[in-house]
Amino acid sequence: MATLLYITAHPHDHQTSFSMAAGQAFVESYRESHSGDQIVTLDLYNANIPHIDADVFSGWGKLRSGQDFGALSAEEKTKVSRLGELTDQFVAADKYVFVTPLWNFSFPPVMKAYIDSICTAGKTFRYTAEGPVGLLTDKKALHIQARGGIYSEGPAAQMEMGHRYLGVIMQFFGIPSFEGLFVEGHNQFPDRAQQIKEDAIARARELARTF
């Protein structure tokens, strides 16, 4: 049995968001075709995702110096523990699906906070004399991203930094397979918006069967 970690970073649900609609279609199809697998949902807008702040750095510093976890302040304990939980959850999964909109050429800030939380030396990567090496070499990932304009080609392609950033992180973690499912152009071509949405849902359902 494999575990799919379904990570969403959108304030809206599938009724409003094109990316969330495609994401829901993916999950429904995946559940039908992978009945023995477990699907774990992580809604970043309704989850505790600590930012890397002074408390976190202080807590990490105490632990690295050999101090016991009990020596940390209440704030340090809470934040450091939660970051550990998020990393352990990510490492324990076999497959990942990220669902985001394209905002200001990237993704919502809560996704960056989440990525920061799972970039953990010794768990998702390790340092070597030759440089960092990813530790998640038996995983696979998919990014479902809605874009109001066209960013997969043409002059705007070089401005898209959300999917490209996730791709760099997945490579950094050693994840060998990272795909993208893009729902794009619905704001640029409002007369075609419904068809764009329906096409994306169909592609999501099909992709889920073999993911």
State the main characteristics.
single chain, 211 residues, alpha/beta, 5-stranded parallel sheet, two-stranded antiparallel sheet, 7 strands, 40% helix
Summarize the structure.
The chain has 211 residues and is α/β, with parallel strands linked by helices. 40% of the residues lie in helices and 20% in strands.
**Termini Cα gap:** 14 Å
Q: Could you give the order of strands across the largest sheet?
A: 2-1-3-6-7
Oligomerization state of this entry?
A: single chain
**Contiguous helical run count:** 6
Provide the residue-averaged pLDDT.
Answer: 96
User: Structural class per helix/strand content?
Assistant: alpha/beta
Percent helix? 40-55%
List the secondary-structure elements in sequence, H or E: EHEHHEHEEEHEH
Instruction: Please tell me what the overall shape is.
Output: globular
Overview of this protein structure:
Helices cover 40% and strands 20% of the residues. The chain has helices spanning 18-33, 54-64, 74-92, 109-118, 162-172, 193-210; strands at residues 3-8, 38-43, 95-101, 125-128, 131-134, 140-147, 177-184. The protein has a five-stranded parallel sheet, sandwiched between helices. Strands 4-5 form a two-stranded antiparallel ribbon. Helix 1 (18-33) links the parallel strand 1 (3-8) and strand 2 (38-43).
